[in-house]
Each structure stands twice: as structure tokens, then as C-alpha cells.
């Protein structure tokens, strides 16, 4: 028996989007009949490890279901066995590596384990390994910690160490600066560390593309020989499927077919899982079909990953590309790809009117839909500022009467077409002919009226829309209005939450005024967002992590109950950034630059920033910048302590551009006068011209308490300015901590909302900047090569619309 | 622990008519339909009927069968208050109790039935391919107030003389029974599945001591009929095949290929047929492979052509090989340019390059006759 016990780190979420909505990565189907975790558990069995604990995050039902008592891996034992140890603190989210704190919650397990050594490894690695070989190496070299590296140089988040040492870290989790073993390995100095290279086939699955590549690798005979060694078999859950059945016209080339599959059509270079059915005349090419997918007669599937029980209807076609796989969700039904007709309804849209990020998203989506061949329409109120600027281009399309609160109002619809997109503006002298967009006492009535007017015009449009996509609380009543109108009862509605802080709470009488009679209100007020979230077909928000966070009270606030109830309809789609933002075409910075010239040009911009801000000049100073709304949300409560601490380092400078909360501004000004020449506040927000900070600073600080998506970090990355951010919302989805070993990552993230962890990461960044220039430049290049395009974002929304139509 | 019903599966027969296929394995452990073993069907029927006590009476080459079934976990039979028991010949007072016929075997183990204080005994055989919910059989038995119920199924009249033929009156009661009659009086064939009231069974078995061989079909049923026991006949409609010969093994495999809905094996939630997982990877068809109108089990690597055949698990079919109208049992290697037609390939066989056997009638190919039957083309 092995002297090892094994911890499966199932807190790793990776970036698998739809595929992990219903399961955690360890439970992902692989290779036609396996789940990823089968490999780790079979390795345990084959290494004679009998004591295994799994630390999952949130939704581990599918994993627990698959593992059962563990008897398939001989882990159903009198002594030891397999343990699933769920998180005790459900409020901790977004962490994607098992932390010492998390292990501390189950300290008892570690104390009870009798083995001397422990191996910690993720449940989403596909490999066939004898863990004892690694242990032998660890002991022979007298290491304190041995880390395992995959054959392609990828870090496998797999560590071997003694139980005694691990217990030291676990029991002092709140004292040491390291949250997990990766941090210990990278930053601790007083221990013997070594990396062990695993030189055989090995796939660490963190993205859908990696899963696809690993699946396709099963077609290579050498890979199969390594993975499926008859002396070290991979065990999996038994099922009762019949043998695979081939029809008279079956044509299968270079494919893996699991039992229970029925093949009547053509399958080329594909992986077909249990009980999948390929109909007559259907074609499946370069694709991965999970369990029980049905490809009906004559359908065509290419470059796709079809999740379990996907049904592709007769003659429908799904065509992805190698770099843009078509990925379905569990049980999705794919109809023929007819032209989608989408209406976006919002109060703002670039370029017509903009107060914040919302307008950019609506405008950019519309532009990209044109390019993707989707017929789309944007409907918004006609504000005077728009009319002034664009009047000559507009065409009056219709006039009608809208009854609101028993009064008849005349409204007109103006349109303006560009490419495939029609922009429609609703004109009403009574409600929209005002200088500001928001901020009036009757905002509730104004946007309720707008919603009703949208409905009144919808049947004037040439075709009924397939999907109505509404943004933020202003349009919150629209799903209910559509539902109540028999003409649109089947129209699907998608509501996007841009920030849950703004919910639109207004007079309850509005419900009656707008003509809704079947909605019961028990309070003096109604909440527009709440009504929208309760009645929309699907809900989305602006990043996958924010989507998960909203389920916790800390983030979801008063709506947390409702959001949890609608969990299965809730999606997270990361916003993009407009392609024209960047140092290549920024006219206001001192020197334009790109990834080839930054080395020479960025110091010029840095000097310019230092000059403008009256800071001490020199390229060896480490400038921390911030471009932000000055508000509690942005992390100011932990910023002040951190900056005070950092000022002990004479090489650090700090600049901030922003506007907002006076109490923070006062403290910022005090800070500035305490450290002249090193700190400069630029109060008064010029959001269109922050380029000089992005171009001149070395790092951008974003210690936000929460951040639905965030754009500052995406802009910073494009300028080669390194974000140091808290691991929350869109920050978590766009930033990967730089890894010295593999030279991957584009910034620095910290998890706990406190100054200590924040400063720890800033110091890590400073150390890299000042003493490892090769790595620092690598990091800048990684950052500048990041792409957060709205095209990707628009495609994700397109896929969601398609899914809603079934 | 009292149980209303216990089941006994008779797997004792030597299966000599299956030739080399059963030379070192019990008949019920023989592979069927690429991934199954014959016994899977009876055991799955038992599992699907919520029966949790099974006695398996076996004496020829039981090792492979026992290791395959194990504790019966694949059929949910690894329960605390029941389970699956292998009832093998044993020695008593210095005599080895060799089993003399199916009924004699049950008699030897009557203690097993007594231990559960069972009211009914379900007698089954382990070499038949069919699906049945035995709860329906028991319901029929109780509703007809029968002492014995026989399951029977209509067969082609031309073939009726191969079976035990049952004659019934209008109340579904048996009035006549003939084993392999030359001139069958009906087309209802006994399936070799019976429910007995336990006391009746005990009594009837007690009278058989002296005989050389005691069989249910040959001896017990005719005797019960003669003694005036109430014997009811339960008619089973649906697929049923008794596998006694190479031809019937082959035919049943072909039945599976020719009927896409064979036994509803591919239908979800319809009395599933369980089989033990061998932890094999899924099968692979390479660039040069072509498979049509066939069934393939896990672990195979197909680079040749397979047409109208069933291929057992872990079989390798190499480039240029062609397998037609054949049944390939597990773990076979079919080398380059081998041509086979109408062949039952015994398990674990390696067929050398360029081997050719295009047979007119169905033959079993085995290491003992491989040189004799076919030839190697140069």
C-alpha cells in the first residue's frame, strides 16, 4: 500500500463556459465514455492509494453522482476510502485553486490520515501516472515540495510534500502570506523545491479548446497506448449500454465510438459517446459528441462540441471553426440555422448617447451582429442631443398613440439604418424631451412609458423578433408586457444585468398606469429589475465570475433569492473592448506605440506622466496608476493602508485619475500632501482622456470589492500596463496571475479583500519589475497580446439567442 | 430471512453442441451479441423483476462464469439479505454429489430454498436470450391458483419438434406435454422457465431418488401432469431463443443485427440488459476501416471491413481484412487481408495474414481446426 494520500483539487473551474454550467470540470465527459476525474481516481487505484479526499466548489452533484461509493476504484473501504469535503463557507467564491484556508475547514481529515505524504492534484488532468514514482523522486532528492510539470511545460497544480509540512501551512493559513501551494512554491525561500517533469501524455483541461484537443488526441494511436495501458486500466462508471450498432450506410473514418451508439450516417475524425445517435445521411466531422446526443437524418455537424443530450434536428447544420468551436449546452435543441432576428432595447447606445459602459456594449453588439449576419434592431428613446446631431439621417417611420395612466400620448418612431442594423428612436415630448437622460423624479414613469411604447411599435416592424434583448432596469417591465400580450406571448426575452446596484425602485402605481393588471403588488414600491429578472426568459450578466458571485448575498444583495431561483437561466458573458482603443492610435499620449516598440516608447510616456504629475522623474520608479470612479465599490477601504505601506519603498509612485465620493477624495488629497513628488491625485473625471496614465504607468491597481466586468483592466492590458486586481467578477475572468515558470499570465490577482494580500501582490509585481526585467517584459508582451473583442462577446450572445429559440 | 420467491438458474448442461466454444467455459458464460454473455439476459430479467435471491446451479467449468458474475454487483444482486449463490457439486458423507439432471440439482440444494422459507421457486435456465418480467409470471401463477406455471412461447410449427410442446385448454391450463414430439400437437414451446409452489416442488422431487437422471422437462413436468397438479401456462410474446447449438448462437447474433429494435436493447428505461463492465476503452475505426450493418463492442480496433457481423470486445481487425456474415467472439486478432464469411470465430484466436475462409455453412473457427478449414493465400 502506498504511503501517500491524495487530495483532489476540484475547486479549479477553468474557462469552460457552458460545459461546466451543470457540472464541475472533474465531471466533464471525455473520450466517449470517461469523465475527467476517472483518470485521477484510476491512477489512485493503480498506485494503491486508498485514502482520497475531494475538495469541490459549489455544484458537485454530478461529481458525487459519478463517484458514488468509490467502489469502481476500490475506494469503498473499511479504513480510509474516498471523502467528498464540501466548502463550509459558501460565501467564498472565485478562488480557483485549493487554499490552505479551505483545507483548514476539514483539518480533522488531515489529522486522521495515517499516510506520511500527500499529493495534491486537480481532478481535471488526463494522464496515466504512478504517483509513487513521483514520491520516490521526492524522497530521493530530499525535497520539501515537489511540483509536477506536464510534458508540454504546463504546470499541473500537482504537488507532493509531507503531511507534516502541509499541516504547518494549513494550521497557519491566517498568518503566512501564501494562500496555496502554488504561491508557496513561487515565493517561499527557506524550503527545498524541485520541479518533476512528467514525460508522457498529459492533458490539463481548463478550457473547452483544451478538452477538444485532448479528445481529438485520442485518435492518435500513440496517445491511446500511453493513456490506456492494459496493466493500468482506466476505470469508469458502468452503464448498461448495448454494443455500438452500425447501419447499412454507415461510413466511419478515424473515429472513436462508445457502446450504445447507433451510427447510420457518416462520422469522420470524431469522438462519439455512449448512446449517441447519428441518423441517415447525417455528417459528423471533427466533432465531439457527448452521451445521448441525437443527430437527426441529414444534419451536418462540424467542429463542434455537443454536450449531453443535444439534439440536432433534421437537416439542420452546425458549423464551427477550429478556433471558434460550436459548443452546445446540455439538452440543447439545434434547429436549422435560420436568420435570427433580434431587438435590443436600451436607454443608451453608442454612438448616439452615452453615460457609461452600457452604451458601448449595446452599440458594439449591434455593430458585430451586422458583421455576423444577424438582423438586429436597437430601440431607444429619442433624446434632444441625438436629434440635434443625427436629425438629417433619420426617417420618420410611424406614429401612434400610447395610453399611459389613462392619458393618450402621441409618439413617433424615427429610424436610421446602417449595414444590417436598424436603429429606432421613440420620440415623446412629454417624457424624453429633456436635457438629461436620467435623474428626474418621474424616471419610473418615463421608462415604464418607454417600455409600453416599444411594445406598441413592435408590430409595425416587418417581422416579429425572435429574441428581445433588454438592458438594465429601465427596460425591466418589458418581459412582463410582452408576456401579457397574446401577439408576443412566444417571444423570448433576455435581460442583461450590467450592475445589480441599480435596480430602479419606483412607485407601485406605475404597474397600473402601464396597464398591467395581473401583477400583484404588496408594497408601496416596485422594483423594475426584480420584475425583469422574474419574468425574462433568460438572464445574463457581464462576466462568468459575476454570474457566480450574484448567487451570494454579498453580491446579489436583496435579489439573491430570486437570482438563485433563476440559476438555470442565468448566464455570464464577458463584455469586450472596442478594437480601436489602444496605444497604437491614441492621439493624446506622448508617443504612440505597439507591442514591437513599447520597450523604447513606453519610457517616454512614463517620463511624460511623471512630468505632468510633478513626480520625481526616472524610469526605475515603479508607477502605480488608477483610473476610476472614486467609490467604496472600487476598493478604497483597503487602498489607503496599502499605499501607506508601499510608500516605505522609495521607488514606488502613485497617480490617480477620477471623481466621486468626497470623503475618499479628502483622504486622497491628504495622502498626496504627505508624499509630495511621489503621489499625485488628478480629481475630476475625464474618462475620454485617461490615455496618458495607461501609457505612462507600470501597473494599474483595481482592488475592487466587486466588479461586474470592468473595462479599466482591459484597457490597461492593451497599453502594456499590468493590472493588479482583486479576484472578482470580470477582473477574475480577464486576468491571470503571471507564472514565472511557464511565462504565462498577464497580471496579478489577490483573493481576500484586505490590504495585506493586496500589498503582497504589489510587492511581487515590484520585485519582478525591479529585478527580473526579462520576466517583466514577457509579462508586458503577454498583456499587450490579450484580446477582449466584442466579436467574441457578440458570438456568445448569438449562441445564447439560438439556444433560447428551442 | 423470509422471501416470497427465490430463483434458481440451471446452468449445468455441458453444451457439447457448441463444440470448441464451450471447451473451457460454461455455456452461459459464452459471449453473445458482441458485448454480452448469455447469462446477462436471465440475470437482468431477475434484476428487473426485483428478485434478490438467486441460486446458480453449475458444475462444468464454472471458473469463468463465477469470476464474471462475482458478487453480482452488475445486476444489483450484491444485497445484504439475499444475493447470488453458486451451488456447485459437493461431497457429503464421503460421496461426491454429482448432479444427475436439472431437477436433481435443485433437489440437492433444497436446503437453500428452505433457508429462505420461500413460497415460490422460480426455475430458469441460463442460456436463453429473451426479456421477461417474472413478476408477471408470478402474478399469472397466483391469479390462476396454479401449483406450477410454465412459461411458453409460440414457435414456428415446422420447428416445433425441437422443443417441449405444451397443450392447453381454454383456461390456459396445461393438458398435455411432449418433449420433442415428432408430430407436435401445438406450436407452444416450453421456455424451460417454471414457477413451483415450494411444497409441491419438494414433494415431486422426493419421488425421484432412484433414477439415473432427473430433468424438469423429461421427468418432473410429465409426472406432475400425470398426478393431476394444476399446471398453468403463461404465454410469452416477444423474442426468445434457446442457444444450444452453433447454428442457434449464430442465428441469434444475426437476429440482433437484422432487427434494429432487437429486444429494445437501445431503448432507454425499458428493462435494461446489464452486463459487467470490463473497463475497456471505446472502440476505434481507423482511416481504412469500414463498418456496416454490424455491432461492435468496446476495446476493438477496426482497420478492415466489417459487414453484417458482430465483433466481440478487444478484437483487432487489420488493414485489408474483410469479415462478412460472421460472429467474432472476444479478444480475436484478424490479421491483414484475412477474408472470413459465415464463420463463428472462437475467442482469443489469432488468425494469420492472408487467411481465407469463405464458408457455405456456419462453422466454428478455432485453434484446433484453423489449418484444416481455411487456407492462406500467398
Element layout with pairings:
The complex is a heterodimer of chains A (806) and B (378).
Chain A: E1 4-10, E2 29-30, E3 34-35, H1 36-46, E4 51-56, H2 61-67, E5 81-84, H3 100-104, H4 107-112, E6 117-122, E7 125-127, H5 131-140, E8 145-149, E9 155-162, H6 163-171, H7 181-187, E10 193-197, E11 202-204, H8 208-217, H9 221-227, E12 244-246, E13 251-253, E14 255-257, E15 262-263, E16 266-268, E17 271-272, E18 277-278, E19 283-285, E20 288-289, E21 294-295, E22 300-302, E23 304-306, E24 311-312, E25 317-319, E26 326-327, E27 333-334, E28 341-345, H10 357-372, E29 375-381, H11 384-390, E30 395-404, E31 407-418, E32 421-427, H12 443-458, E33 467-471, H13 478-484, E34 492-497, E35 505-507, H14 509-513, E36 525-527, H15 528-535, E37 538-541, H16 544-549, H17 553-556, H18 560-565, E38 570-572, H19 598-612, E39 622-630, H20 636-646, E40 652-660, H21 662-674, E41 679-683, H22 691-696, E42 699-702, H23 712-718, E43 722-726, H24 729-734, E44 748-750, H25 755-771, H26 773-784, H27 790-804
Parallel strand pairs in A: 1-4, 1-6, 4-5, 8-10, 12-15, 13-16, 14-17, 15-18, 16-19, 17-20, 18-21, 19-22, 20-23, 21-24, 22-25, 23-26, 24-27, 28-29, 28-33, 29-32, 33-34, 34-37, 37-38, 39-40, 39-42, 40-41, 42-43, 43-44
Antiparallel strand pairs in A: 2-3, 6-9, 7-11, 8-9, 30-31, 31-32, 35-36
Chain B: E1 5-10, E2 31-32, E3 36-37, H1 39-48, E4 53-57, H2 62-69, E5 83-87, E6 91-92, E7 95-96, H3 102-108, H4 110-115, E8 120-125, E9 128-130, H5 134-143, E10 148-154, E11 164-168, E12 174-179, E13 188-197, H6 198-206, H7 216-227, E14 231-235, E15 240-242, H8 246-258, E16 283-285, E17 290-292, E18 294-296, E19 301-302, E20 305-307, E21 310-311, E22 316-317, E23 322-324, E24 327-328, E25 333-334, E26 339-345, E27 350-351, E28 355-365, H9 370-373, E29 375-376
Parallel strand pairs in B: 1-4, 1-8, 4-5, 10-14, 16-19, 17-20, 18-21, 19-22, 20-23, 21-24, 22-25, 23-26, 24-26, 25-27, 26-28
Antiparallel strand pairs in B: 2-3, 6-7, 8-13, 9-15, 10-13, 11-12, 28-29
